[in-house]
Design a protein that fits this description.
single chain; 136 residues; mainly alpha; 72% helix; globular
């Protein structure tokens, strides 16, 4: 299965307003060849509540496979955050190695989780850390 073709096909389905076919295309491609671009596309669609649990299950099955474990934890934290499962998102963020905690993506997601917890002051500090963090 060729990943770029499946990404483009899913993008075409999405442009045609068929998010279900886009999801199916990217999910099949992810199962065949785990790649970050596919996870990113699926996370974009996983904002819909009906897809939260499915996204979390997909990411859970990828653990230990071809994706970097810290990147996978970041993706899983994003999925948990989108599902409103803040404790789970915080747990995944806490499991990311120190070496990868200086990315802008980490700080932005950390800020989002803190904001969901009602910790606005800490969220603002974390958002501020994005400016000096390593780009992803």
């Amino acid at each position: 299965m060729v990943v770029p073709v499946n990404v483009a096909l899913g993008d075409a389905y999405l442009a045609a307003m068929d998010s279900d076919e886009a999801w199916s295309t990217w999910e099949r491609a992810l199962r065949a060849a785990p790649r970050t671009v596919l996870v990113e596309r699926l996370l974009m669609l996983a904002r819909e509540p009906r897809r939260h649990d499915r996204m979390i299950a997909l990411l859970g099955k990828l653990r230990g496979e071809q994706l970097d474990i810290d990147l996978l934890r970041l993706f899983l934290a994003r999925a948990y955050s989108q599902a409103g499962r803040v404790v789970d998102a915080d747990r995944e963020l806490g499991a990311i190695s120190e070496a990868h905690r200086d990315s802008a993506a980490y700080h932005a997601l950390r800020a989002e989780v803190l904001q969901q917890r009602g910790q606005a002051d800490q969220a603002l500090l974390s958002y501020g850390n994005c400016a000096s963090a390593t780009p992803v």
